[in-house]
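Hey, I'm writing a tutorial for new members on how sequence and structure tokens pair up, and I'd like a real worked example in the thread rather than a made-up one. If someone can provide the structure for the chain below, I'll link this post from the tutorial.
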Amino acid sequence: MPCPRPKVAPPPGRPPRPTPPKDDPVLRAVGGDALATDGLVIPAGAPAPPAVTATSWLVADLDTGEVLGGCGPHAYATPASVQKLLLAATALPRLNPRTTVTITTGDLEIEPGSSAVGLVRGGRYPVSTLWLGLLLNSGNDAANALARLAGGDGGVAATIAEMNALAKRLGAFQTHAVTPSGLDGPGQFTSAYDLALIARVCFERDDFRRYALTRNARMPAQKALKKGGFQFQNENKLIYNYAGALGGKTGFTKLARHSYVGAARRGDRRLVVTLLGAEARPLRGWQQGAALLDWGFAQPKGAAVGKLVEPDGADQAGTATAGDVPPRSTPDDDRPVTPAAARDAPSRLLSLAAAATVAVVLAATPLLLLLTQRRRQRIRRRPGGQLPR
């Protein structure tokens, strides 16, 4: 079934889309066999969702994990700044918000013209302020500083490796980060389904919800550098205009176009929407998200087409592995409580059996036999090997 979309001409000068990894039918069935489509998937009898320009999207229940509907939920796409949610999921548990960070030249090395919250070299800022700069103002400078600190001696590279390892543990097997900020990089992809898994982990945290709902914050003055302070605002318009909004994240690059993640509460339900590859007309990204949230809240409880898999829900005999997490050392002035994600973890594998337990429809059909054969071939050919990207 085709996804409803308004007729909008592509913008002039748009870069060509990067070639995504080859589709794997096992990965496309994560969360349910019905999700393995590039088209529209909604519950039987549900009204048509609103027409949006996003090339892929998904609406899910944050608490039950039920997927209410989607458009190409497992289609590969470039993330832009919604990738900062994966950085938050990785680094929030590692960093003490009261730690003071001194900004380096490397922290300020971002793509010219890309978003920055205005950090200055040699400036000293609390980690909590950097999180606000990251989530409110989409500061790529803040992303670099947080990733450097969270990576310890391994710096930004170690944090990116940990981001990718965490994505695999969450079941976000189509996500591969190259930059901590979401600025475009070769081989960097995600999917609407994966973003929902990552957002679900973020919205479980009190500190993330508090940061995401903050409307404005102040960057402290740097007296030693003769730099004044200033105020900055939350760019996610959902929190100003949608009743029950819980926050989220906006994103944009010329390559990725507009991406968006947003969540809201209505009564006793909390829904999340993720969308990728959108244009800002006739509706902006957050407005497309709001329209899809309205559609989701109108669905009865229990109406679902799939499921968000649980973290670490895979067994040891499947097709994908998280690999080894690089060792890290913690700065002397940073003493966070280290979660399981911060430890070197054994390889976690997504098995066909695990995928089947969350599938909407997956029985002993010829497709299942084909996937089982592929799984066995992979195990023989690449024991403990990394997931192809």
